Amino acid sequence: MTPFIAEIIGTVFLILLGNGVVANVVLTNTKGNNSGWIVITTGWALAVFIAVVIAGPYSGAHLNPAVSVGLAIAGKFSWGLVPTYILGQFIGAMLGAFFVWLMYKDHYNATKDAGLMQATFCTAPAIRNTVSNLFSEVVGTFVLIFVIFYFSNPEITSGPLKIAMGLGSVGAIPVAFLVWAIGLSLGGTTGYAINPARDLGPRMVHAILPIPGKASNNWGYAWIPVAGPLIGAALAAALFISLKS
Fold first, then answer.
1. Is the full-model pTM beyond 0.90?
2. CA distances (Å), 14 to each of 46, 89, 242, in order?
3. Which of 37, 59, 79, 193 gets the most CB atoms within 10 Å of its CB?
C-alpha cells in the first residue's frame, strides 16, 4: 500500500459513506428519507473516521487537498508530494461518487427534485451570496486545519520513508468529532465542503453520469468550495507558524 493508493482508497470510503448518507436522507423512498441534518453530519463524521482508519498508517490520511497544502505551508509536509496526494484524493472522490450513484440508482430514478439529486454529489449554498459563501468555506476549513496542527505529530515512518501526518496523526476518533463539530456548528450555510476534492470531484461525476432530470452543475459556484478551503488552510498555517515563532 503506497501513500498514493492509500489516499485513493481512503477518499473512496470518505465519499462513499459521506455522500452516501446524504443520498439516504434526501433521495425518494430510501429507508432514511427525511431523517435530517443530524444524521447527515453524523454520517460524515463516521465516514471520516473510517477513511482515517484505512489510510492513516500509509499516507497520514490527508484525504483533502486543503490538508496537504496546509501542512506543506507549515513545513510539515513535502511540497514535492502534494501533487501526488491531491491526484489520489481526486481519483478517490470521483470513484466514491460513482459508487454512491450505483448504490442508489433506483432512488435517483425515483427522485424528481434535481437539486436533491445534485446535493448527493456536491455542495450548494443555502442562500446564494458569494462573499458570505466564500467566508463560510474559509472559516470551516480554517477550524479544521488549525485544530489538526495542534493534534498532530510531525511524521510517521513507513520503512525508510518518513511521511508527515495529516488527519491520521489526530487519531480517527478525535478527527471524527472535529468534523462532526464543524458540520453541526458551521455547516448550515454552504454544506461545509471544507475539501476541494470532496466537492469538485463528485461535481464532475454528476456532470458525466446519465441521471434523468438532473440539474446543471452550478459551475458558477463551483470555485468557492475549492478556493475557500485552500484559503482557510493557508490562513490556518500562517497563524500556526506565527504562534510557534
1. yes
2. 9, 10, 32
3. 59
Q: In 11-33, which positions are buried (b, 16+ CB within 10 angstroms) versus exposed (e)?
A: bbbbbbbbbbbbbbbbbbebebe
| Encoded amino acid at 233, one letter | A
pLDDT band at 10 (very low <50, low <70, confident <90, very high): very high
Q: What CA–CA distance (Å, rounded) separates 101 from 238? A: 39
Inter-CA distances, 151 with 18, 95, 230, Å:
23, 29, 20
Torsion of CA 187, 189, 194, 199, to 10 degrees: 110
Tell me the one-letter amino acid at 215: A
Helix axes 3-26, 37-59, angle to 10 degrees: 170
Distance in angstroms (rounded) separating the CA atoms of residues 62 and 102: 26
Q: How many CB atoms lie within 10 A of CB 118?
A: 21
Grid cell, residue 188, equals: 448550515
Confidence band for 174, pLDDT divided at 50, 70 and 90: confident
